[in-house]
Each structure stands twice: as structure tokens, then as C-alpha cells.
Amino acid sequence: MPAAWAHDDVQQQSRSAQISKPSAPISGAACKKAGTKSGVFTCKKVKGKLVWVGATVTPVVDPLCSAATYTKQVSNLKCSNDSVTFSANGLPGTAFTTMVGITATNQQYPRPHNYQFTFPRTPMAASPTVPEAGPIGVAVNGVPLFSPWTQNVLLEHTLDSGELDTCGGHAGRGDDYHYHIAPTCLINSLGEKVIEDTKSPIGIANDGNPIRALGWFRASNSVEGQLDSCRGMRDASGKYFYNVLTSSKWDILNCFTNKVVNTSRDSWTSRKDSSGNVITGAKVAMTITSMTNVEASGTTCSVMQGTLRNQQVIQSDQSVKTISSPVGIFYCDPACYGEFFEPTAKFPGGSAYYELVTTRCPSGFNPASLPLLTGYSGASLGKRQP
């Protein structure tokens, strides 16, 4: 066979192969038999004509990367292949009442912070670790989550010590509001559909695993019997999550399954007294019945009212009086506050004196409208730091 003929024969075979190779369906193009499938396409009748219809592929979205997971208190949500980041001021919003119901207060007020949170998208392997007193994650409203323990030398559940409000939180020594148990008010506000049907997280743990509240509204959705010792399990897709205890004491997690990482940065301005010392607050037997913020001449005055219960109060003559009565504590700035302080001098355990400073209160704030005690005016007693 001449070389030229052989060349033509190869070309003809190549063209025949190209012609015989079936082409992939095109969405909307005509097809012949209903129900025929080709890849992701199915032949269906649309408006009286048989055409190829492609399958709808719904992308799997990580709920921790979805703005719909978070409340409006969270901002600047960003996701990369490695991490989830967002910002928050650490306050749950005006829809929730904070501090009310506390029976043992350190006289700290929920004040704005400047949190920057970063969590790993893929939790890192590690041996389980039991959290100590301190942060364990953050709720989807940007309020930090803490372990249930107080900061005492002997670990005590904050629920037992009377330190938590009706939503499961309180303000810490840095005036930082946080939850020590499952955020009950937040979960109730998210609602049954979000919690039970969507199975949306209510928070993120410091090892990057989501936290859910399955069974909160529906006992039939409870996973309590499937949880491991850390209060975690895997969902149908294989994703690990923690699930809060849906009954008293509403614990969030018992231990971290994966590696704990540093997830937050914060900055804030500490409150100071008239001498320029940082105020950390003394613990007093006071049942808090209201917490409000009063805006006065550009200054935010934080006010808590309640009732003292057999509180030992040091008088100006150094005597100690047991008081059970309505009382107000407040803080505007170093020239306007009224709070209890624990003395460095020796007095019966639990004693405190009431320091009232009203030398220059901002216009628009009237401390006299509050149920104040007579301020201590005797010799200096010092102020004990925690």
C-alpha cells in the first residue's frame, strides 16, 4: 500500500472514532426516551418536550462558616481552608436580661470587650483533656463559654454557688460577660426548628468542634445515650460535635476530644476607683433583681439593684452591722460609683465596706434615685485584691 494511502486510512479511522463517540448531554437539549440517564442528566418531559435535565447538586456548607448560624452580635465572619474567624463585643444583646437572679455577686458589670475569635476548621488529634476554670469556647452570639467551675482554689460549680443569672452567665473580674453552663436564653431564642431540625450549632469549643443542643425541645431528638465521656459524638456525615446536657446542671462538655488552641484575643479598659486602682470587686450576699445601663453625657453608668441578705457591713466607726435591705451598686467612672470592698484590715469573714463616691457624676445620672447605703467615711481600710 502506498504510504499516502496508509496515511489517508489512519485519518479516516480517527474520524470514524470521533463520530462514533457519544457526546455528553447538554441541559435543555432534546432527548428521546423519558427516564434515560446519562451521568448527572435525566431525560424528562418539560413543557411537553423531552429534554435533558441536570441533577441539582446542593453544596455542603460548614455551618460554622454560615452567617445564618450566628446572631447579629457577631461580625466580620470569614472562613478559609484552615480557620473560622469573627469579631464580637461579648454582650448577648438587649433582648436578654443579664445578671438578674444572681445571689452571690462579685459586683462586676457586663461591659463591651473587643474579641477576635479564630477556630480551626479541622480539629487536631490529641488525647482528651479536662478543662480547668476558664474559657472553653464561644456561643454563636459571641459570648464566651466557660467551664462550670468557679475560680476558687477548690473547684465549685457556679450554679451551686449562686453566681449565675437566669440565662446561665455572669460578668467576670474583667467585667466580661460569659456563660458557665449551656446558654439557656440563647438556645430558647434560637428556637426548636434551628436546634432540632436544622441541628445548627449553639457554639464552638476551643478545639474547633461545634456544640449542639439536640433534645433541648424534643426528647425524641435526645442523643444523651450516644455521647462519649466528653459529651461528644459523630453525626451522620462523620462530623464530631459536643451536645449540651439538656437538664440540670446544663453542662456544655466534660473534656476536649481534640487539641485545644488559643482561640481569642481581647482588649478592654479596666474600671478604676478614685485613687486610680483597678476595681475587681468583693463578693457580697446580694440577690440581683435588675441590671441597667444609663447613658449620661457620653458616659455609660452601669447600675445593679437588689437585696442584701445578712451581709456584714463595716460602719464608719469600725463596727460591723448585719444588713438585709434593698441596695444599689453602680459605676460610671472613677468620680462616680458606689460599691462594696473587702478590707485588708482584719474583720469578720465576709465583711465589706460600702464606698460611695459622687464628687463628679455625669449630668443625667442621679445616684440619689437608687437605694444607697451610707458611704464609709472612717479610717482607711485598704482594698483586698483577689
Compact overview of the structure:
This protein is mostly beta strands and 386 residues long.
Give an account of the 3D structure.
The structure is a single chain. By secondary structure, the protein is mainly β. It folds into 3 domains: 3-54, no CATH class; 62-269, no CATH class; 286-369, no CATH class. 8% of the residues lie in helices and 28% in strands. The chain has 3 helices and 22 strands. The chain has helices spanning 3-20, 184-190, 192-197; strands at residues 37-38, 41-46, 49-54, 75-79, 83-88, 115-120, 135-139, 144-146, 169-171, 177-179, 203-205, 210-212, 232-234, 240-243, 264-265, 286-296, 299-308, 311-314, 320-323, 326-333, 336-341, 353-357. The strands form 6 sheets. Strands 8-7-11-12-14-13 form a 6-stranded mixed β-sheet, with no helix packed on it. Strands 16-17-20-21-22 form a 5-stranded antiparallel β-sheet, with no helix packed on it.
Task: Give the topology, please.
Layout: H1 3-20, E1 37-38, E2 41-46, E3 49-54, E4 75-79, E5 83-88, E6 115-120, E7 135-139, E8 144-146, E9 169-171, E10 177-179, H2 184-190, H3 192-197, E11 203-205, E12 210-212, E13 232-234, E14 240-243, E15 264-265, E16 286-296, E17 299-308, E18 311-314, E19 320-323, E20 326-333, E21 336-341, E22 353-357
Parallel strand pairs: 12-14
Antiparallel strand pairs: 1-2, 2-3, 4-5, 5-6, 6-15, 7-8, 7-11, 9-10, 11-12, 13-14, 16-17, 17-20, 18-19, 20-21, 21-22
